[in-house]
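Deliverable D4.2, example record:
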Amino acid sequence: MSNTVISRLKPNLTGKVAVITGAGSELGLALALHAADRGMKVALADADPTLLAAAHEVVQSKGVATLAERIGQFDLADVQELARQTEAELGAPWLVCNTAAGATIESNLWGVTNGVQVFAPGLVTRGCGHIVNIAAEDLFGIRGAAVDIAVSDAIVGLSESLYRELDSIGSPVGVTVVCPTLVTTSLTSTCHAVPQPEAVLPLVPTEKLADRIFAAIERHEFWVSSSHAPRHRTNGRVCQVRA
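Output generated by the structure prediction step:
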């Protein structure tokens, strides 16, 4: 699970299929646009039909094949239907980005869990692809965000276990977990738990974080964070998952 160089070739993403949940805005939309810029076919999913339609139009303007599907990420049947529609219209997914589409436990935790449960078996069977799970910053707790941090730790633990399970069977399917810290989204703009967060850690544009995520996909890296904040509380854990 390390960020060290391993014996895998950089993937050619052109023509491959990306599934992005929470794609209606912010980081999800940024990931969808980055996928399109790399010539990928893009399936966008979101719970908000207005945001989804606008995002779909923007990604379509890139000239790639697209699909837009309204889903509730915490509804397993919706995610299963997304998988069926994607394969029927675009082809078998290669990249699956499980991106939060809201500020609830259901959309964040169950959204990621359902995405893994539905899409991982197909990637393993085909012997290729990559899963990206988005958590919040799990590396340290902040006042007023106990539930968010608990959900984030659950997503990180899920991703670690998934990585180890795939590694144990020799699967080439990659796993990346993203711990964004403080990113410029509607959630941080309305958050009062951390006054003046830019005085503690600089806010990171979603486009820049999307760049880092795609770099991690191409380098088969497990960890992505939006900051270089002190990690004294997690040095042992990071070293352990790099083993």
